[in-house]
Amino acid sequence: MAMDQELVKAVTTDNNFRVLLLNGQSVVETARLSHHLTKTTTTVLGRGLLATLLLASSVLKGTEGLTVRLNGQGPVGGMLIDADAHGTVKGYLQHGQVELPLLANGDVDVASAVGTDGFLEVLKTQGNLDPYTSTVPLVTGQIGSDFAYYLAKSEQINSAVGVSVVLDEHGQVKTAGGYLIQTLPDADNTAIAALEERLPTLPSIATMLTTATDPVKLAAMLLPDEPVKVLSQEQVAFACDCSKAQFAQSLAGLSSSELRQLITEDHGAEVVCHFCGARYQFSATELQQILAEKGKL
């Protein structure tokens, strides 16, 4: 299993904490290339993708899925991300070409890019049940702490969420990862207090991944006094299920006059998937076929 695209679920052996550890370098790099992102937007969307993968893995099962909408009214605009229970994620930013000056310490100014005057919304699809939607206000715009706030308010689970993306001098993703630590029902208060004191003193998860690429080893760095038992390890991926056939159905939803205009004036159409940037070309002949099928309905 490639360590740059791995998610590990574990529990501490004393049953104090549930731990999810994620190395998502390939996920974020694929998103960067798919959307031609800047350093700023690679970091912003990357954090969103990582946090959504952690959230999905913690609350979904089977065929369930979730959609995350995040908008803090910052210059990158809104973020839309889909994930399933099996480590697959896709998403995009409204303004993927935004680039902001770096902070004095050289970090990307995520909070300014995202903004804080907005919301985080999670919609969960649960098979034949009605979708469940919950919305919380953004608290920092740093994304990780915003997801932790969502879990505390909407899922009633006390959690620590850390997500981080480190780029090289060329803007490529060097490391990217995250963790989600949740207290179990009978967790010891002393252990909780010790964890709360330790987490703010640690380097970013992406920085730790430069020395410990195995997520299991990260557990020892995050929880040195809490041995962990690994429950599962799975691959994660940035992947889209779009297809030309799906977009043909979307084009069939246009009016006949709109389709004729595309045929006579544009001599075809190009459709772009927002989630992955894939481009699908439809010739005038293909549009004629879609128009003819509409006439049979």
From TrEMBL:
Protein family according to the UniProt entry: Belongs to the HSP33 family.
Per the record, the major location class is cytoplasm
Entry GO CC: cytoplasm
Q: Name its cellular compartments.
A: Cytoplasm
| Organism field | Fructilactobacillus florum DSM 22689 = JCM 16035
- Looking at the keywords, is Chaperone present? yes
Q: Which domain of life is it from?
A: Bacteria
| Mod. after translation | Under oxidizing conditions two disulfide bonds are formed involving the reactive cysteines. Under reducing conditions zinc is bound to the reactive cysteines and the protein is inactive.
GO-annotated biological processes: protein refolding
Keywords in alphabetical order, please. Chaperone, Cytoplasm, Disulfide bond, Redox-active center, Stress response, Zinc
Q: Which Pfam families match?
A: HSP33
- For this chain, the annotated S-S bridges are 240-242, 273-276
PANTHER family named in the record: 33 KDA CHAPERONIN
Q: What is this protein called?
A: 33 kDa chaperonin
